[in-house]
Every structure is written in C-alpha cells, then in structure tokens.
Amino acid sequence: MSGLVLDRIGVRFGGLVALDGVSLRVAPGRTVGVIGPNGAGKTTLFNVVCGFVSPTGGSLTLDGRPLRPRPHRLTRLGIARTLQGVGLFSGLTVLENVLVAAPATPGERAATHGVTAAAPGETAATPGKEVAPHGVTAAAPGETAATPGEEVAPHGVTAAAPGGKAGGRDRAMAALERCGVAERAGDLPGMLPYALRKRVALARALVSDPRILLLDEPAGGLSAREIDELRELIAGLSCAVLLVEHHMDLVMSVCDEILVLDFGRPVAHGTPDEIRADEAVADAYLGAAG
Amino acid sequence: MTTGGGKSGESGESGMTVLRYLMWTVFAAALIVVLTYALPPFRTYQLATVGAYLCVTAGLTVLTGLNGQLSLGHGALMATGAYTVALVQDGLAGRGQWTLLVSVLAAIGTTTVVGGVVGLAAARLRGPYLAGLTLAVAVVVPAVASTWDETFNSDQGLSVVLDPPPGTVPFERWQAWLAWAGALVTMVALTVLVRGRFGREMRAVRDDETAARLAGVSVGRTQVLAFVVSAACAGLGGALFAVLAQSVSPGAFPLSLSLFLLMAIVIGGLGSLAGALWGAVLLVALPAVAHSVTEGIDAQRLEGNLPLALFGLTLIVVMLAAPGGIASLRPFRRPFARLRRKT
C-alpha cells in the first residue's frame, strides 16, 4: 500500500494511555486531518510518525515498507513537519532557516523527485483536491496579491527546481516565494510578525520537497484573513498533508478525510460531511450528556 | 544577538571567495612579518602569545557561541597538545626542523581524539551538566601529570627541545612566525567552516534542537564534530604554547586558564571570529597591564589576583556597554559588514 500507513498504533507513558489502536492511511496527494479535544493524542501521533516517541504497539509503514522513523532522517524519506511552537532558529536569517532544511546532495534528492514525478496517477485519484483550490482562490481574490509566489509555482518547489539540480539557495528562495515571505529573506525571525514566522516555518518544511507534510496546528494564532491564505496554500500543495488543527472551518474545507481522537482512541473517521454529522464527535468535543 | 561570525552564512565555493580569503591571509601574514621586525623582542614574544591564544579562542568561540556548548575544559585540551609536543620533540630530538611540524600535527591528532571522547559525552549533556563535565576535564590535568609522573614528570613538567631557528632569525621572531602561521591557518579553516553548511547546522542546533532534527540535521553528530574541531584548535594552541615557553607543566594550564579563555571570547563577542582575536589580545594585554600597575605602586600581593580582577571588570564594563562584545561595536563591525555585503 503506498503512502504512510499507521496500523493500530499504541503509545503508553507509564500508566497513561496516550494512543490506543490508532490506524490511519495517508495516501499520496491526500489531505488528512486529525482533530480532537486537548490531550486527545494528536501531537503524540505526530511524534510517533517523526520518531520522537516510539510506539508501544502497532506498526508504521511507508510505501509498504516498515518505517522506523528517526527525526533527522525524515526529510530524506520525504516527510517534513512543522512545529506547534514555530521553532525557527532565532540566530539565523529567514533564508538560512530554510537553507538548513534544503537537501545537501542534489543527486540523492533527484531520486526522490523521480518518485514524486512518477506518480501522476495518484494526483488524478484525488480530484477533489484539484478542484478545491480553485474554488477557494476564487472565493478570496483579495488574498492572491499577498501571495504572488503561489501563482508562479502552483505545483510547488518541485516545479521550480525540476531536476533537483538547482542550488540550495535557489530552492530555498523558491520555497520562501511560494509561502509569500521571499522579501524578508535577509531578516532575522524575531523581526517578523507571528504570521510570517509561521510561513517561514512552512517554507522550511516545503524546501525538502516532501511527499508527506505534517502540519501541527498551522492556523494557531492566525487571524481569519491569514487562515484564508493558509487554506489556499495547503489546498495548492501537491504532496500529501497530515494536519492537526483546532480551527474547524479550515479542517473541514481542506481535508479529504478526518480522524477524530478522544483520550487517545479513534472516535470517528470519514469525510468532513460524515464527521460533521457524527454524534460521537459532538460527544467528544462537548462531553457526552449524562 | 549571539552570532557575530558569518551571519550571512552562505558558503561560496566560488573563486572570488577563495581569492578574498587568500588576500586577507597574505595581508595578515605580511603585517605579522612587518611587526616582528619593528617590535622589540619582548613585544614580539607577546605577539606570538596572542597568535597561540587566537587558535584556542577561535575554536572555543565557534563551539560556545555558534554551537551553544559551554566548555570549561579547553585549558586541559591545550595541556594535551602541549604535552604531546614535549614528548614527541623529546623522542625526535636533533633530527632537524621538520620534527616540529610532526609534533604539532601529533598534538592536533591527540587532542582531536581526546576532544572526540569528551565531545561524545558532552553531546549527551546540557547546560550546567555540560559545564560540570568539562570542568572535571580541566581539573584532572595535575592529577594525570602526577599519577604518571615517569612520563609527565609531575608538577615540574617537561622541557621542550627545540632546534635553533633557521639562519640568523632571532628566536622570538621565529616563535611569532610559527604561532601566527598556526593562528592564520586556524582562522581561515574556521571561517570556511563557519560560513558553510556546517556552520549553519551548528547554529541551527544551538537555536532549536527539535527543529534542527526535523530539518534533517543530526544533532549529536553536529555537536560531537563541533567539539572535535574546537578541541583540535585548542590542541594546536597548546602545542604553540609549548613552543613559546619551551616547557610544559600542569601549572601552566590551571583551571583559571579555562575561565580566562571563556571570559575572553565573551568580551570579544561570542560566536565571532573577530571577537576571538580581541579576546586573544586581551588575554595577553590585561595581565601585562596588571603587571605594570603592580610594579608602579609596589604592591606585590596584588600581582597574582589583579589580572583576574581586571578581567572581571572588563567583562562587566563590556557587557554593560556592548552586550554583543567588542566585535559588535560599530567601529569594529563596519569593515566586516562591508566585507559580507559583497558576498
């Protein structure tokens, strides 16, 4: 099975069950949301995929092969992640922040590109994804001017650096442009407003040209307008996205499917419409009556 | 801001960059040669000492300022280099001038190995625990020297056998050339390293380890490598000190030396190679000033402690006036800023 597959993942911290029997598949090109109340295990799930936490049960596979994630090897496997707390390097310029994550050896990356490029069928398998961005773009024409990079490179950094031959600097600038922060490349992160810092973090995740992008509360602390811009950005990505988010409108509009967790257990799994109608979800969020 | 060195960061393997480094190095080397002819012997000797210190401070500022690892043990790493030179020189005595190069390389090699071992442990420790570990390394030197006193000759130490300088070159001038050859090689090597990908990764690890991991940087590897590089520089510095003093003893590498080194790079500007130069100058100048002061007022009892007090005072004044160190002050920053803009 292609993509990232989590099979009955369990995590225990001593006596505390953080995750219990969580199964999930992130197919190429799909956008999968993980929601749930605070403490439901969403970030723990991310930490399992990234190798910060070892699961006490279950298994992980990537494209059918068992995955033993180690954080610093992830980008080489085509997995990138943003952090809840942004986590920019305060002593490095915006450009340098992205350069750190830019692949070191172009040759090695070219192979990964091949994988991405050789899977056009997968994109076709998710037509909803292709349709959605246009709708959103049309709905928010005012925002387009703020993110011109998106118009130039709608299919991501891959398009900007096809053979993987372009230097790290070019790739980093392309990623920054895509996220609309290229003109702040020389600034230190501390000089940027919070929303722009989150964009830099996103650019840093995108520069490795991931096949799977893990976003940990990307909308946290953003204004409604900024969330709209983020929505466009996510919808325009060609890679698979695993999204942890509290902002329901965003989750409902960008996700192809949603997994709901409560106290570490999967409560519901389905399309946004199915999740909206699910009673167990309402119980998890509002507390079961009686 | 904690960084001073290589803020623009991007390495250029382009010919222009190499040419510029080469020009700066030739310029600096010419300046040193001119100075060694212009200065009286004692000043030349002090100049040589600045060069030897510069190797150590440059390596330490990269480790502490750019990678965020605090080391209180660099004095001990210097001792490692110095003792290696003394032992190898003794073993190869009288075979010619080339033996010095061999023993200095051996000193760097030995310190690299020791640095690797300490670095492996250091990479697992943070904050005060790291300070504690490196402090232990600094404290252990006299104990090692007296435990294996047949090799290290305990507190008395060893003398360093040196061939006379070639031709009619005075000894101090020869020492200054040797010390600054080492210092310039160190500075060029560290500049290239710091401006390249490794420098960026070191700073990324310093700023946020989790984010660095997710960006594909191996945190442990980066920290161990940074420690090894820094240790090699300290080893070279220590080797040069052995050449300057022509003797090594535990008393030359006390704990206070490590503390002085740390103060020097903070005063100079943490993480800045230009600041390392300021630190090296201060390490030689402040004790000299303290010495002349005590001579003037005839207060021998002050002599031992005055340099420390002066250093403390300088540290306080500089931190109040320029928290980024001397290298961050505008008149000193400008030439380097201009240099970088051209990149």
UniProtKB/TrEMBL annotation, chain A:
InterPro entries: AAA+_ATPase (IPR003593), ABC_AA/LPS_Transport (IPR051120), ABC_transporter-like_ATP-bd (IPR003439), BCA_ABC_TP_C (IPR032823), P-loop_NTPase (IPR027417). SMART domains: AAA (SM00382). Residues 4-288 form the ABC transporter domain. Keywords: ATP-binding, Nucleotide-binding, Transport. SUPFAM superfamilies: P-loop containing nucleoside triphosphate hydrolases (SSF52540). The keyword Transport applies. GO terms for molecular function: ATP binding; ATP hydrolysis activity. Gene3D superfamilies: P-loop containing nucleotide triphosphate hydrolases (3.40.50.300). GO terms for cellular component: plasma membrane. The keyword Signal does not apply. Pfam families: ABC_tran, BCA_ABC_TP_C. This is Amino acid/amide ABC transporter ATP-binding protein 1 (HAAT family).
UniProtKB/TrEMBL annotation, chain B:
It is a multi-pass membrane protein. Keywords: Cell membrane, Membrane, Transmembrane, Transmembrane helix. Its main location: membrane. Pfam families: BPD_transp_2 (PF02653). InterPro entries: ABC_transp_permease, LivM-like. One of its GO terms (molecular function) is branched-chain amino acid transmembrane transporter activity. CDD domains: TM_PBP1_LivM_like (cd06581). One of its GO terms (cellular component) is plasma membrane. The chain crosses the membrane at residues 21-39, 45-63, 100-122, 129-148, 174-194, 224-245, 251-270, 277-294, 306-332. It is found in: Cell membrane. This is Branched-chain amino acid transport system permease protein. It comes from Pseudosporangium ferrugineum. The lineage of its organism: Bacteria, Bacillati, Actinomycetota, Actinomycetes, Micromonosporales.
